[in-house]
């Protein structure tokens, strides 16, 4: 049994091989015959070879770019198919992380536990934190859960107000049905309390 990734690589290689074969066909010189053209016509043939070669190269480049585009689209479709097969809707659960402003908290790391089992543990770089401040959303976990009641616990560590080490947790209990479950970890600034707030929201 071959994996989807292996099939993707083979199909991509087939497309690139086809492009290479087309290039070889275009690059191969035309066969010559024993009967040559008159000497006076030779300079004209040589001068005409430049534009013909340029046109051939342009056509080859276009076909290569088309083949690359086909490979990218094929890889994307196969990844989507693989995700649907590995994480069907009736058992799928996904956990996301977002930040709102974030001036009162400098994110360092996040740990996610599902039913007392660590499923994600991520250490952030300054560039990643900046991306979250600009509205980026990170998918921290994608997995399968059976139907029933489950508990998610998230632990946040970083720098809090007055440059103090800050460690907080948030948890939620939720019911998994046969529909996909999406959970968002939200980091917000509480201007009234002058401290960060950590919330867990379940999207239906």
Topology:
Layout lengths: L3 H24 L14 H45 L5 E9 L5 E9 L2 E7 L2 H8 L4 E7 L3 E12 L5 E12 L4 E10 L4 E9 L1
Parallel strand pairs: 1-7
Antiparallel strand pairs: 1-4, 2-3, 2-5, 5-6, 7-8
Helix pairs in contact: 1-2
Commentary on this structure:
With 204 residues, the chain is of the alpha+beta class. The protein is built from 3 helices and 8 strands. It has a 4-stranded mixed beta sheet, with no helix packed on it. α1 (4-27) packs antiparallel against α2. The longest helix has 45 residues, at 42-86. The protein is flat and about 75 Å long. The two termini are 36 Å apart.
What oligomerization state is this entry in?
single chain
Instruction: Name the overall outline.
Output: flat
Distance between the termini: 36 Å
The number of helical elements comes to 3
Question: What fraction of the residues are assigned to beta strands by DSSP?
Answer: 35-45%
CATH topology of the largest domain, which one?
Immunoglobulin-like
The major beta sheet can be summarized as: 4 strands, mixed
On the 0-100 scale, what is the average pLDDT? 78
Binned, the helix content reads 25-40%
Specify the structural class. alpha+beta
Write down how many β-strands occur, each being a DSSP E stretch of 2 or more residues.
Answer: 8
